[in-house]
Every structure is written in structure tokens, then in C-alpha cells.
Amino acid sequence: MAERGASSGGGSRRGGFSGGRGSSGGRPSPGGRARKPARDEARNAAYDLLRAVDERDAYANLLMPRLLRERGLKGRDAALATELAYGTLRGLGGYDAIIAMCGDREPDPAVLDALRLGAHQLLKMRVPPHAAVGTTVDLVRLRIGTGASRFANAVLRKIASRTLDEWIAIVAPPAGSDLVGHLAIAHSHPRWIVSAFRDALGRDAEETADLLAADNARPVVTLVARPGRSSVEELEEAGAEPGRYSPYAAYLPEGDPGQILAVAETRAAVQDEASQLVALALTRVPVDGPDDRWLDMCAGPGGKAGLLDAIATHGDLAAGKSGEAAFAFAGGARMLAADVQYHRARLVWQTTRQAAVITADGTEPAWRPGSFDRVMLDAPCTGLGALRRRPEARWRRDPASVAELGALQRHLLGTALDSLRPGGVAAYVTCSPHLAETQVVVADVLRRRDDVEQLDARAFLPGIDGLGEGPHAQFWPHRHGTDAMFLALLRRRA
Ligand SMILES: C[S@@+](CC[C@H](N)C(=O)[O-])C[C@H]1O[C@@H](n2cnc3c(N)ncnc32)[C@H](O)[C@@H]1O
């Protein structure tokens, strides 16, 4: 076992650190005067983000761009601040266990956030140890005080004495006796999420570890070129590369998507590739009879509605590009897009062109039953399939939220099916692979009705392997490089 407990009093003076950027980490200068700590803008911005997430439940990916703008951080500094903050938030499960072993007391929340930031630099980033320790100690001295900076110095020097793998071997339970506990610490996820992912992956330990690792990697920015409004070629001219699966997808290796004209004009948008594919699959199911009334029941903020609205209007123009699409919609439908929250419905209105947009509660439908040929239900869910995009989200959810959402998901799916005319088709989609939000919801609702058949969703996602045993389709970050979106396609019997 590792030696426990840095003294919170003075901090050890042994060890080889001279501090980052000339910092002595609280050590007096040769002349006896404490050196003035340097203020590091990128690290301060990252620290402020961590404090805001901790204290005010801020959303990291909403606050970070604002912080960068306000502080004038651009280019490499902006990238550093973002990596420091997001990486720390993702990794803090493991870092907290290591910090607990290296200090002689529980740090105050403000000190803990700084220690997490230091631990991330020491254990995950290629920041030289003297710089990681020195800059973090400077930050603590400037923002909290000299006493706390001595404590931070001692704890960080202990952390720096081992690699991440060495620490994991010490702080995590052995995989042989507690696999879920081991993976939870090793890949910094709450235990209940590891357990849910493992169940969804058929209890395969190696795949579960791959998924958790994928959640900790920065996702590539994926764009959608809305058909009839933009094209992948236009996005390529702006520096993007064609996507792997969706004929409307393009990956943006670097740069700010907001600077791309097509994105600024809402002809294109940032959208995960699996999100595109589940919307596309709904439009590719052949439907007998009229096919001009579509509904997106939970449309806000409008990612899927934006693509559906373009296909409804102009058709599935790139169908030929993605293998043998069973059916390509020719255009000429109108979509109703609804969301229970006014401000989210407003975002849908801003991103669509032809759709009628309303604020409406799907559990008390504002439309007559049997009105629609196609219905998209992208249900409110835990979002466990998009943890790599929302660095703090894994620490915010708890198992109770799965149960709470379950009742709403069942109710909304019932409405979606009632809203279909006979022969119409609905997509039940979640951005979560949790079985209680996916297969169990569909099975429960179908058990109570004999007017609905489930289609094999994989048939409408041609050329994509690894979607599971069917009839639903499950995307995975570690297999497809997408969010873990779930899709079930359900047809109302004619
Ligand atoms: C997963 S999000 C939908 C994402 C959206 N389809 C997209 O691609 O951008 C779920 C949405 O359901 C909405 N919602 C929650 N409860 C609802 C209800 N009872 N009726 C209608 N919308 C609801 C939420 O406000 C949220 O915008």
C-alpha cells in the first residue's frame, strides 16, 4: 500500500520539485521572501469552471465557451483550458480516490478542485511534474491562501511519485474480486453506471472497459449537412471530412464550427452521427399510402428536427450514397415539432425552416390520435449515451433518475403510437443504452398492445455492423465512434 497522509501543516520539503514556471510551490526564495506566484490564465479558467460546476451545478460545455471569451483565451491557451477542465471533470472519480490516499485530511471543496486539476496534469496530461505541481500550488496560494498551498504542495508531490496505472493498482479494488468497482475507479465512472453499461453489453468485461475508455476520450466534432440546404461537399470546403456512416455527416478535425457559413445559417449543424442515422432510419421505412404528415414529439433543441425537416421538405437526397437504402423519401411532407418547454421549442423554430413548431406536452397531446404517418419520439432520458460530450454529467445522474424517467418514457411512447395512423411508423430513440430506458420500455409498452409490430431497425441502417442482436439497434462510442443512441422502429398495424 502507498504511504498515507501528507501533513496538512507544513508540507514535506523532500522530493525533487522545483515548481512550474519558476514556482517553488510555497518554498521561500533564497532571499527569504516568498516568491510572488504567477497567475496562469488557462489554469485559472479551468479552475473557475470546476468551481462553478461544483458550487452552482453549471453545465461545463455551456460555461466554458463563455469563460474563454471573457478571458480572451484563444488557440492553444483555449485548448489547454478546455482539456484541463473537461479532463479533470471526467477523471475525478479516480483522482479523488488517489487524493484521499495522499492527504491526512479531507480537503475543502475549493482545495479539492485545485488538487483534482493538479492530479489530472500529473497523471493524464504530458505536463512536466514540476510545472504541474508548481502552477497548481501557485493557483492555490493566489486563490485560497498560503496554508492551503503548502498542503496542496505536499499532496501533489505524493501523487507525482507514481503513474496513474500504479495508483489505480493501489486504490481500486482488484478486478478479480470486484470487477465493477475496479472499472469504476480505473475509468472514473460511478459504479451504478458501470453496472448498467456492463448489462447492456451482455456482461462482457473487455467491451465494458473499452466503452468506459471511449467515454473519457474527446469526441470528434461531427456536422450534418441538411439535405437541400447544404452538402457534405460544402462542409469539406470548410475543412471537414466526409463521415463514415451517414451520407449527411462530416467530421471537423479542428476549428470552431460556428465559423462555418452553412452552420451559422442553420443549413448545417453540429450533430452526432448516430443522431443523424436514427432520424434517417425513420424516414427510410417504406410506408403504404399517404406519407406527408410527420411528428417530432420531443423535438427540442432541434437536432433531429432539423434533419427531419430538411428531408421532409427536399427528400433523402443522398440515399444512393449510403449503400442499399430500402426506400428514399422523395420530399413533400410537413412536420409538426413539439416540446414541452417553450425555450426548447423556440430553438427548434430557429433551426427548422418548414416545420410547424408548438410548445406541447406529449402526455396530453395537442393533436388528434391517428394523425401522423411518421412519428419521432426522442424521449427524455438520462443521457448516459453522451457522457463523453458532457464531462460532468456522469456525476449528476443517479439510479433514481432512471426510474423517474421510465414512467414518462412509457407514457410518451404510448402517445407516439396512438398518434400514428394505421400503417404509420414510429421511432423510439434514447441517448442512453441503459436497458431500463431502452428495451424494457419498448417491451413493456408492446406487451399491452396488439396493434403494433416491431421492425428490425438494423435493416434501415445498412452497412453498419455491431448494432446488436435486434430487432432494435444500439450504437456505441467504442464501436462506432458515435454516442450510444438506441433505436426501436414500431409500425402500427394496418
Ligand atoms: C432527448 S431531448 C430531445 C432531443 C431532440 N430530439 C434533438 O435531437 O435535439 C428530450 C426532449 O423532450 C422534452 N420533453 C420532456 N418531457 C416532455 C413531454 N412530456 N412532452 C414533450 N416534450 C418533452 C424535453 O424538453 C427535451 O427537449
Automatic annotation (TrEMBL):
Domain SAM-dependent MTase RsmB/NOP-type, first and last residues per copy: 197-493
GO molecular function, one term: methyltransferase activity
Top EC class for this record: transferase
Annotated PROSITE patterns: SAM_MT_RSMB_NOP
Binding locations of S-adenosyl-L-methionine: 298-304, 361, 378
Pfam families (alphabetical): Methyltr_RsmB-F, NusB
Keyword Transferase listed: yes
Active site, per annotation: 431
Amino-acid biosynthesis in keyword set: no
Signal peptide: none
Protein name: RsmB/NOP family class I SAM-dependent RNA methyltransferase
GO BP annotation list: methylation
